[in-house]
Automatic annotation (TrEMBL):
Keywords: Membrane, Transmembrane, Transmembrane helix. This is Phage holin, lambda family. The lineage of its organism: Bacteria, Pseudomonadati, Pseudomonadota, Gammaproteobacteria, Pseudomonadales. InterPro entries: Phage_lambda_GpS_holin. The chain crosses the membrane at residues 12-37, 49-70, 76-93.
């Protein structure tokens, strides 16, 4: 098995990519950690913790373009990621459903 070539350009590109995406990676990691700890603290299984952490991470990563759209700094994603991990998927889904019901008329309202 050959080792990774020790080319300065390779390390420079890898470090540049990491520094450019650090806020995203940090926010996603903290969101996953918070969700997993919350599930384990509540008596859940490892599988539940892993799934909850994965979904919270994906929600956090999806939030970053929204922050950019509103002109907010990417570093705000860290706080939002921890908040998402703390609330959990079910609470975020309930909040999204309430927001959608408030903003979008339902099918039953036309009767």
């Amino acid at each position: 098995m050959s080792n990774m070539p020790d080319k300065p350009d390779t390390w420079l590109l890898a470090l540049a990519w990491l520094s450019q995406h650090a806020p995203t990676l940090y926010a996603a990691g903290l969101s996953a950690l918070m969700a997993a700890v919350r599930i384990i603290y509540g008596g859940g299984t490892r599988r539940q913790a892993l799934l909850e952490a994965t979904i919270c991470t994906l929600i956090t990563i999806g939030l970053i373009p929204v922050l950019e759209y509103f002109g907010l700094p990417q570093n705000l994603a860290t706080a939002a990621g921890v908040f998402i991990g703390f609330l959990g998927v079910k609470k975020i889904a309930d909040l999204a459903d309430r927001f959608a019901d408030f903003k979008l008329p339902g099918r039953d309202s036309g009767k």
